[in-house]
Amino acid sequence: MSLRLGDQAPDFTAETTEGQIDFHRWKGDSWAVLFSHPADYTPVCTTELGRTAALRSGFEARGTKVIALSVDPIEDHHGWAPDIADATGTELNFPIIADPDKQVSELYDMIHPGEGDTSTVRSVFVIDAGNKIRLILTYPKSTGRNFDEILRVIDSLQLTDDYEVATPVDWVKGDRVIASPGMSTDDARERFDNVEEVKPYLRYVDDPRS
Ligand code: BEZ
Questions:
Q1: pLDDT score of 210 more than 80
Q2: Contact 27, 125 (CB under 8 A)
Q3: Alpha-carbon span 85 to 89, nearest angstrom
Q4: Could you give the CA distance from residue 210 to residue 196 in angstroms, rounded to a whole number?
Q5: Considering only CA atoms, which residue is closest to atom 1 of ligand 1?
């Protein structure tokens, strides 16, 4: 099944490094990042999982839980964890799903046969508090992801859920935002501070939370 933005994130039961979980129950009403990596004991994946662990406070500040997945068995996840701490300086602090029967990988379409073998590619799903899929990223196996970008997108989604704004290119939290295209400039001036009309359809405004 191919998942799209706005779809319900499928529920599943899986074995993880922190015990068996029911995904929706584990997630609760938090946001979640579910991401796959190709294999344990591989260099790029080692850097990615260490970096994600180092960003824990950033994910927590956004009410977001993180969970990783590969098709390797649980014994490999446990054996690899000390290497991640040793190589990156940060202990793992989130669960890794063991998916040797590929149940979750197939549910989330994380295996791309054209990519050489039956391991998962680097998929990322950002799932909101209501279990709706809000971001899908797919990276090739040879390219490590940028987890600051994932935090940045969560910032944008959480802001634009609450206010009629959008976030421009390269936006980061604290930067000015854009009034929703459907809003008139007069409306924007009533609702937001410091409205700058560059074009009738491009109006920068201050972040309404600042
Ligand atoms: C890695 O994590 O280093 C990796 C995994 C699969 C293919 C290429 C690189």
A1: yes
A2: no
A3: 5
A4: 16
A5: 44
